[in-house]
Amino acid sequence: MKQTVQVFSLVGPKPGTEKEKRRYRLKWRIDGRDFSRSFKVKAQGERFRSELLVAVADGTRFDPATGRPLPWVKSDATWWTWSREWLGLKWPRWAGKTRSSGVESLVALTPHLVRPGAPDPPAELRSWLRNVGFPPQTDPVDLEGPELAWLERWSVPLEELEPSILEATLNASTLKRDGTVMVASVVRRRRNSLKTVLTAAVRRGLIVSNPMDRVEWEMPQHSLEVDVSTVASIGDVDDVVELVADLPRGGGRYAAFFAAIGLAGLRPSEAAALEIADLDLPETGWGTARLRGAITSPGTRYTADGGTTEAKGLKHRAQGSTREVPLPPDLVDRLRTHLKRWPSESGKVFENGEAHPVTAENYGPVWGRARRELWPEGHPLAKATVYGLRHTAATTMLRAGVMPSEVARRLGHSVDVLMRVYAGVFHDERDRSNALIDAELAEQREANGEGPPK
Asked: Can you tell me the mean pLDDT for 412-434?
């Protein structure tokens, strides 16, 4: 049955009305029945009126009880109920690391997305959300406790989310305890999570539009550039490898692991997945490693089978892709020695003491010990990470004059990312590059019988 819908003009407050009492009133009529709504801000009223007119133009049916277009009929979904449902929809297709970072973002955001006047949350709310509330394996009917009661009472309904609430949430969830801003990658992840969850709510018809589109909140400046003054040299890598190789018990098995990262530029997760069958280790000269994937350790809560590790494809590559990485002769020798000293039981180049894939829990303590012995507090490398050894390989290749496209290929980067991450290397090379250009210009002028410029 056809509906007759009329949307009238927005009516402002009477002249002289006190500022606190000013309201802008909108009236619309559906099949002869009048509906109205008032707004404190004129722009809000105009936006609401425009949305009604679009619904009319699209032929959308209106709910005779509420007066709103049927897709707008208020849902009882709150941020808590919807974000948990949304996570459950994404979970089966996500890798373990993505699951882990997704949960962490929602845990950081949820305590702040509450109704005005909400009391402080229970002390254990974040822990409850991380371990019980958000992992979707838990059936909602099995959830209980003061944390659940607080969320059910105070989590803000999606329809009541205003830009001011979202801005306050972004500010609160992206600051450290000392008041400084978290690293840009974490801030960006949390902002993107908030917007993504609400965009999905729009697609589900739970809200009409995404309030994040009206948020006035600026991301902190984000730089990928590595501080080359804190990148280990090849000599530093050699020192680490030699120290670790001499460690007693099983610590020595990680010497070649660190060497593969610092000399060939493998990611730790790629080195962990490296198969003996994919190595070419000649008696002399350069060798190669064919990388087929990576092994990460997101935690038992986030892997598909409940295990501690998870195999995945190469980063930024299609499933099944490979990447061949040349291995310098000294790394070839190191790997040959490693495989003789630590015979593999699984076919992996690197294993822990139980013949399982290596993880940060295995090599982390070994790295920490080597770092403390070589670079005490106050040293530029005192906070160096295992992943940071990869920067050593990259800067070494670039300073050797290897074409950026080849460096990017070996590292598994795009050239664009390479140039941004290692911009500092190119700054350091400016004088040497200028000298090379001077020599080339002089050679060309001499060949043409010209003297130096006046």
From this structure: 78
What does the block give as tokens for 350?
């690197």
Give the domain ranges of the chain: 5-72, 79-214, 228-421
At CA 419, angle to CA 437 and CA 327, rounded to 5?
90
DSSP structure class, residue 353: T
Instruction: Report the C-alpha gap between 13 and 15 in whole angstroms.
Output: 6
30 DSSP 8-state letter: E
Q: Cα separation of 128 and 107, whole Å?
A: 9
Count the Cβ atoms, other than its own, within 10 Å of residue 183: 12
| Contact (CB, 8 A) for 64 and 4 | no
Say if residues 310 and 298 touch (Cβ distance below 8 Å): yes
Token digits of residue 317? 């590559």
Structure tokens at 73: 């009929």
Q: pTM for this structure?
A: 0.69
Assess contact for 216 and 165: CB atoms under 8 A.
no
CA atoms of 254 and 183, how far apart (whole Å): 30
Superfamily of domain 228-421: Intergrase catalytic core (1.10.443.10)
Q: Give the separation between CA 93 and CA 99, rounded to whole angstroms.
A: 9
* Count of C-beta atoms within a 10 Å radius of residue 1: 4
Helices (DSSP H) in 110-246: which residue ranges?
A: 125-128, 146-154, 163-173, 184-203, 234-245
Q: Indicate the SS3 state at residue 287.
A: strand
Burial (CB count <10 Å: 0-12, 13-18, 19+), residue 61 = middle
3-state secondary structure of 37: strand
Report the share of the chain in percent with pLDDT over 70: 95
Q: What span, in angstroms and rounded, lies between the C-alpha atoms of 300 and 22?
A: 56
For residue 409 the two structure tokens come to 């290929």
Q: How far, in Å, CA of 384 to CA of 106, rounded?
A: 29
DSSP codes joined into one string, 137-173 = TS-GGG--SHHHHHHHHHBPBGGG--HHHHHHHHHHH
Rounded average pLDDT over 71-85: 83
Query: 323: which strand partners?
Result: 291
| Dist CA 147 CA 151 (whole Å) | 6
Q: What is the pLDDT of residues 223-262, one digit of tens each?
A: 667 777 789 999 999 999 999 999 987 889 999 999 999 9
By CB atoms closer than 10 A (0-12, 13-18, 19+), residue 110 is buried
At 434, phi and psi to the nearest 5? -60, -40
Quick: pLDDT tens for 259-309. Answer: 999 999 999 999 999 999 999 999 999 999 999 999 998 888 888 787 888
DSSP codes of every residue in 61-96: PBPTTT-SBGGGSPP--BHHHHHHHHHHHHGGGS-H
Per-residue pLDDT, 142: 65
